[in-house]
Amino acid sequence: MSDLQWIQSQWPEAVLPACPIQRLLKGQKALVTGASSGIGKAVAIALGHAGADVVINYVTGEDKAQAVADEIMRCGSKAYIHKADVSKEDQVQDMFRAMIAKWGTIDILVNNAGLQKDAPFDQMTLDQWNLVLSVNLTGQFLCAREAVREFKRRGVRKEVSCAAGKIICISSVHEVIPWAGHVNYAASKGGVMLMMKSIAQEVAPYRIRVNSIAPGAVRTPINMEAWDTPEAYHDLLKLIPYKRIGEPEDIGQAAVWLASDHSDYVHGVTLFVDGGMTLYPGFETGG
Ligand code: BGC
C-alpha cells in the first residue's frame, strides 16, 4: 500500500485533488465582482484558464468587461458579463438570480469590487466615507450572503469539488497596516477581515470555505501614482522587501489555488500576497 493509499484508508473522508493542475477548476461556476480591470480582471482570467466558467461583474467599462469574457471563452470556458453595483441589494440579488437561472448554481465567489476615495482625515466627507464602506464592505456582505444561501441550498457537488462552495474576499495589506490619509479604505478592509472570519466560523460545518487574499502594492489603475514614475516606484520599493511591485497575475494564481481543492483544509485565513510588505520593512536596518 502506498503512503497515499494508507492515509486515505485512515481517513476515508479526506478528499485529495482529482483534477489536473491545468484545469483545476473544471466544471465550477465562478462569479468575480469588479472584474473589468485590475486584480478582478486577472483573477477572472486565471479562474477561466483553470477551467471555471466565469461571470464578469462590472459597474462601468462594458467593453473592457467583454474583453475579459472573450479571453476566457477563447480558452474554452464559458463567460458572460453582468452589470451590477455590489452595494445595491436588489442589483446583487438580480445578478445571483440570473447566474443561477443561466448556469444552475455558483461554486466560487470572488468578492473583489473595491475603490478608494482618499482624503486627509479632517477633510474626509461623509460621502467619501459612505461610498468606500458601501462598496468595499457592504458589497462583500451582500454578495457573500447570496453565495452562502445558494451553497447551503445545494450542498456539495462531489463531481466538481469536495467543498459546498468557496468565497474569496479580496482584502488588502491595509486590513492590518494602518493607512493615514485613507482611513475609510483601511476601516473597510479591517471590516472585511473580521467579516470573513466570522462568516467562516459560522458556515464551516456546511463545508463552505471562506478566506481572504490581501494584496500589497499591485500594478493596477487604483494606485497608479505609486508606480508610474521612476521616483514613485523607487519610493514604493522601500515598502516591499521582495523589491518588485506585484502584478495582477500574482493575485490570480493565489485565487486559483484558494478556490481549488488543493487548499481544502485552508479556512478562515488571510493569505498575504504582498512581497513582504507586512514584514515591517522599516525594521530592516533599525530597531
Ligand atoms: C491599495 C493600493 C496600495 C496598496 C499598498 C492596496 O490595498 O489599494 O493603493 O498601493 O494597498 O499600500
Report what the structure shows.
The protein is α/β, with parallel strands linked by helices and 287 residues long. It is built from eight helices and seven strands; from the N terminus they run H-E-H-E-H-E-H-E-H-E-H-E-H-H-E. The chain has helices spanning 3-10, 38-49, 62-74, 89-103, 126-154, 183-203, 230-237, 248-259, and strands spanning 29-32, 53-58, 79-83, 108-111, 165-170, 208-215, 270-273. A seven-stranded parallel beta sheet has the order 3-2-1-4-5-6-7, sandwiched between helices. Strand 5 (165-170), helix 6 (183-203) and strand 6 (208-215) form a beta-alpha-beta unit. Helix 2 runs parallel beside helix 3 and helix 5 runs parallel beside helix 6 (183-203). The protein is globular, with a radius of gyration of 19 Å. It starts with a helix and ends in a 14-residue tail after the last strand. The structure holds beta-D-glucopyranose. Beta-D-glucopyranose (BGC) is lined by residues 116, 172-174, 216-217, 222-223, 226. Beta-D-glucopyranose is lined by residues 116, 172-174, 216-217, 222-223, 226.
Compact overview of the structure:
The protein has about 290 residues and is α/β, with parallel strands linked by helices. The chain has helices at about 5-10, 40-50, 60-75, 90-105, 125-155, 185-205, 230-235, 250-260, and strands spanning about 30, 55-60, 80-85, 110, 165-170, 210-215, 270-275. The chain is about 40% helix and about 15% strand.
